[in-house]
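Re: weekly structure request thread

Next one in the queue (313 aa):
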Amino acid sequence: MPHPFLPDRPVDEAESLRSLAQGGLPLRAQRRIWEHNQAARPVFTSTFSAAEGVVAAATGITPVSQVMGSSVYHVGFSYSGGYGGGEQVALTAAYEHARSLALGRLQQEATLLRAHAVVDVRFERREFEWGADLLEFQAIGTAVRLAGAPVPERAALTLLSVDDLYKLHLAGYTPVAIAMGNCFWYEDHADCSSEGSWYSQELTAHTRAARTARALAIERFRHAARHFRAHGVVGTRVHRHGYDREYEVNDRSHTAFVLDLVVMGTAVVRQETPASPPRPLLVVDLEDRADFEPESPFASGAEADSAPDSDDD
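Done, posted below.
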């Protein structure tokens, strides 16, 4: 029986949809990864800049392939008016699920590529004019292998760049996952007249919406970090997307302020026996050291001990 991913065999679209329905990868993505793994000299792709490529080569980080995960999600009906605002729990769950599906598919691609980690993960969000209740989340990053490190069961995900990943290992920490927390909140629009005065003043309803949504998102973010048994979170980012939404109550049109707030960062664990970071040299050696090869901080203890000693005093 021919292999399902051979070029002369068409993709089974029904099977591809079943894979997506279970949170997996479409068959075309699986074929692309299979072809990459079968190639004698695979060509890597990455999101690295030229400077990041130099840092990666010097520190034992090898890019394997650019990986991505995507989820186009239909956001269902949610009642949004008349009772002073609050969190839209159904929408919070929908947005969290859509982001998780995209992130999970990115991780599946990296794991099939036998990568150790995915660095520089970025999220992109897109809405469609032809579908008001549709949105797409994409997660994009670069799958990498770490010199001397055992291949994990699942690739670790990180928002960090290559040089930050290197510094993190020198500091004795290892990334394990991306921790996220979100909140979808709506609040009836307020103006100076409804707040009681036309003079300069704080719009307390909007302040309450921003403060409460942020508090809920941060608590869920911390819960995710505890779930991954992290010792800390680095590179925390806050993404805030606000817009207006119209609704009707008793045949009267109203406008609500809608806020989608996401907090995310890289969860890290402390290494049991971290390697000592190299001491900075006070004298710069201007001689050409073509034979110098920096030691990878990702190597196991046995491999690190067997590395040749430096000639520097």
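The two ends are 63 Å apart (CA to CA). The chain has one domain: 44-270.
Next request, please.
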